[in-house]
Each structure stands twice: as structure tokens, then as C-alpha cells.
Design goal:
The chain is α/β, with parallel strands linked by helices and about 170 residues long. The chain has one domain: Rossmann fold, CATH 3.40.50.1970. The chain has 6 helices and 5 strands, in the order βαβαβαβαβαα. The structure holds 5-O-phosphono-beta-D-ribofuranose. Keywords: Isomerase, Lyase, Purine biosynthesis. Belongs to the AIR carboxylase family. Class I subfamily.
Amino acid sequence: MAEQAKPLVGVIMGSSSDWDVMQHAVAILKQFGVPHEAQVISAHRMPDEMFAYAAAARERGLRAIIAGAGGAAHLPGMVAAKTIVPVLGVPVPSKYLRGEDSLLSIVQMPKGVPVSTFAIGEAGAANAALTAVAMIAANDDALAAKLQEFRNQQTAAAKAMALPTV
Ligand code: RP5
């Protein structure tokens, strides 16, 4: 249902091999009923498509772009270079450096063209989506109420945590 409406959030990733991580962003957007789209757009293998996607993002109504990539992870920064739509970068774990390369590639943007950068892996993907939800909720009271309830549930779960007796 959320995928059929005009998307507000674009989820892009450099490879289908990123899906295991990036599906956690899509799951959050689905959970909150935020219209979204998801596709592979590779910075180094599809540079023309990447630029076209970024250039059209604002006029297509996207309010945020969640971009995940691994290794020399150019995708979030290059998309940010071509649009003023906020870009939320997710470092995907890499084979040899466990995603530390992805993290540094994404987070170290020079001053002037920001990429909001999240944790490596699943938590980063989910939190990027939660941040997109929060951005949209700034002008959507029903969505804000859902987000607050989501947080309340985590508080209740933490309060109910018990430790083994020693
Ligand atoms: C990056 O290279 C992708 O984002 C992916 O994390 C990594 C490996 O891509 P594949 O070789 O699995 O397609 O561009």
C-alpha cells in the first residue's frame, strides 16, 4: 500500500547485495505507512542513472533519500551533490574492512554538501528510516503520534527488563 502512493522517501543502494541491510529501512517505512520506493542505483556502475535520479528527486516529491553503499561508498555523497533533498547515508558492511571503509567514505563529506550518516549495518538502515519518518512527521500529526507510540513501547520494554538474580 505504502509503495503504491507517490513516494515520499527513496531508498537506493549500490547493489542487490546491500538488500540484507537496506531491507531494514524499508521495513520501518512500511511499518509507519510512509510511501516509498526502493531500487538499486550504483554510483560507479550506473553514474548517469544516479545523477538523473538525484536531479529529479525534488520535483518527484521525495522528502528524503536513504542511500546505502559499501566499500568506497560514493553513492550517498554523489546523490547529495546533485539534489537539495536530504540524503541519509547508510554504511553497508564490506567484505574486508567490515564497513569501516563504508562509514568513513560516507561520513567525511567536505563542508557544504551534507550527508547525514548512520551506524554501520542494520541499525543504521532502520535509524535512517526512523529519521525520515521523523522529518515527515514534523508536518503530519498522525505520523508523529505513531512515532511517539513506537518510542513509548521501547521505554515500556526497557522498564520491564529483568536481570538474573546473582
Ligand atoms: C558497492 O559495492 C555496493 O554498495 C556494495 O556494498 C559493494 C559490493 O557490490 P557487489 O559486488 O556485491 O555488487 O557498490
